[in-house]
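Risk register update: the risk of archive-format incompatibility is retired. Evidence:
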Amino acid sequence: MFKALSVLAAIVAFCVVVLGSYVRLSDAGLGCPDWPGCYGALTVPQSESAIQSAQQAYPDKPVVHAKAWKEMAHRYLAGSLGLLVVALAVLAYRQRQVIKTPWQLSAGLVVLIVMQALLGMWTVTLLLKPVIVTLHLLGGMTTLALLCWVAFRHSSQQQVALPASQQRWLQLALVVWILQVLLGGWTSSNYAALACTDFPTCHGVWWPDMDVGEAFYLTRALGESRDGGQLHLSALTAIQWVHRLGALVVLGWMMVSVRLLLQRAATRVLAWGLLAVVLGQVTIGIGNLLLQLPLVLAVLHNAGAALLGVWLVAINARVFNTSIRASY
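Archived output:
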């Protein structure tokens, strides 16, 4: 029961992350001007009287059903995930003598879900403030990774022993991934994905004009500089350029990880899978630049980032705490 529930929760978490990116990238993040309801109701206003009441309550926020339903669908699915995580925490405590992960981890996921709900609320009430949107994405990816960890640790696959140094490298791959998720979230939440549309150069040069200080000033509002003026192109360019550099680091780190995993027959499938996910993600990222960020590719880029995290967790769950003494 615990194993099945953890797998289901991980699948739902993946869907929540991807649907959340679709809502954000289709400009539906403010489809409902309030939280947790939509125009004061638990569903999108449909009848003529309900729409009139909504417009009276929010005269500056016209009801756009397509955007409002996207937003509410994401909230319903996220709420379902919250219920699954609570059930998982209860089961983990009751079966704490037999499960393979500490019950406190499942309890911590409940706290994380509560934080995610608060960030979701602030995303709306603070009008898509970039730092809040980025933290919301980070929280979603972290929730997904932890649920996958619980699910994979309860799988029946045998552990594979690796030298401690190789284990640490693979663990740090998760850190590299999460840092790139942060940079990607910052790029998306600042609408900097098209700050330069050529590749591999940016504005025709290898090192474009950039304002790094303004780019990473965390507490500013969306589209504004720290003094309240309009955020200029050099800051957006810096955001996107740093994300590109991060992608290079991720690519290099994962290639070394693939090489390590290919050394053993038991981890070769994981190695080829990691290679496929990384190369696919890089290809989609470049495609987004050259094709001017089509919605389907942009959402796939987010799904690819989530899938990379899932794969790295699967690898670490397979080799965790089963080390051999390094002979080299």
